[in-house]
Amino acid sequence: MNSYLRVLRQPDFRYLFLGQSASVIGDRVVVVAIALYVTQTTGSATDLGLILGCQAFPLIALLLLGGVWADRLPRHRIMIVADLTRAALHTLLAVLIFAGGATVLELALIEAAFGAAQAFFQPAYTGLIPQTVPDPLMQEARAVTESVGNLAFMLGPAIATGLVLGIGAGEAFLFDAATFVVSATLLFRVNPRPRGEAAAPAAVVQLLRDGFEEVRSRAWVWVTIAVFMGAVLCIFAPWYALAPIISRGSYGSAGLFGLFESVAGAGAVCGAIAGIRWRPAHPLKAGLLLVFAWPLMALLLALRAPVAVVTLASLATGFGFSLLMIWWETALAQHIPPHALSRVSSYDWMGSLALLPLGYLLAGPLAGALGAREVLGVGSVVGIGLLMLALAPRATRELGLTSTQQLARDIRVEARGET
């Protein structure tokens, strides 16, 4: 709690944190709300896949451009525009639903514009957090924001289900729109501190090249991004496309998929709490080792392991992923020049998500031809191999604390009288 209070005493971070706390809950609500609304209106998995794909494609396509602008313009201003744009889009969607229902085409177009706005928001957000806290508090800031995100991962689906099935889909999208308004309002009060040199004026293409060089010159960055590009294709997409079907066929209830997801969310909250204070000597190596629970969880489901065992693996998956995200984002903020941080973040997001639409498209047909359990099982084994490759670079295994982080650790040790 002292760590929470210490970082929340920073006024700029506090405004950012409160605004994103509202926004991330709305994000989790809307993902489930879209699925439930499409299921209620058309009942077509193809329609749902089309809408989700329309949201994902502009997000992936525009992330690099979003990173360039986030390194050139005030990041909180970009986030405000993105928040207000997304609020307007989901207000429009709510109005269409109230007026008699949104068509699949209308949903697809609105979500495509929504994904485009998110492409500008995400790199700016990654680059803004280090500008709202002193460097020694950077990991605490990442852990606090991660804990709220993981809590939203737990609560969002329940809120969405209650709104869509209990009140109406229009109200669910209005709720999401309101969270973006709250976020934008609080962002107006953020006054980021200067950090590092500003990006030199240059053409967009040159800025993209410079950002790519920052990635290419660090094996621990580009190898990790490449590995997760493959892991998203082999594990993430098949899990979300096939795990509900496998749960119903293996255990008699698709609802167990919701249980696994909720338990993973609980593990992620625990991981975020641990991440406030836990600073291993080699954080990236530790995070990658912990996240081996992810393909193991999917493999156990494919093998029809006992529910208790899959549930335990889900808890470990959430715990490991949460810590990996905290340590990864902290490492980027500490080792990447501040003026290039948003561009490197955009390469990270684009690379990690690049094959996600393809994964969604392939999972269903492959399951029909080979079997859902077989597809998920093979993908899990490939994922284990990929994570092993992530640990291959010496730089990944040996990446350690920066001098600033070491200083922060020494200060805490001295404060506890342990020196």
Can you tag this structure with a few keywords?
Growth Hormone, Chain: A; 82% helix; globular; 419 residues; 2 domains
Strand content: under 5%
Q: Give the number of domains.
A: 2
Question: How far is it from the N-terminal to the C-terminal residue, by CA?
Answer: 23 Å
CATH architecture group name of the largest domain: Up-down Bundle
What is the mean predicted local confidence, pLDDT? 82
Q: Please tell me how large the radius of gyration is.
A: 21 Å
In CATH, the homologous superfamily of the largest domain goes by the name MFS general substrate transporter like domains
Care to count the β-strands? 0
| Major beta sheet summary | none
Series of secondary-structure elements, N-terminal to C-terminal: HHHHHHHHHHHHHHHHHH
* CATH C-level label of the largest domain: Mainly Alpha
Total count of helical runs of at least 4 residues: 18
| CATH fold-type name of the largest domain | Growth Hormone, Chain: A
Pick out the low-confidence regions: 403-415
Coarse morphology = globular
In helices, the fraction of residues equals over 70%
State the secondary-structure class.
Answer: mainly alpha
Itemize the secondary structure elements and their pairings:
Layout: H1 2-8, H2 11-41, H3 45-72, H4 75-98, H5 104-128, H6 138-167, H7 169-187, H8 204-216, H9 219-251, H10 255-275, H11 283-290, H12 293-302, H13 307-335, H14 341-353, H15 356-370, H16 372-390, H17 394-398, H18 403-415
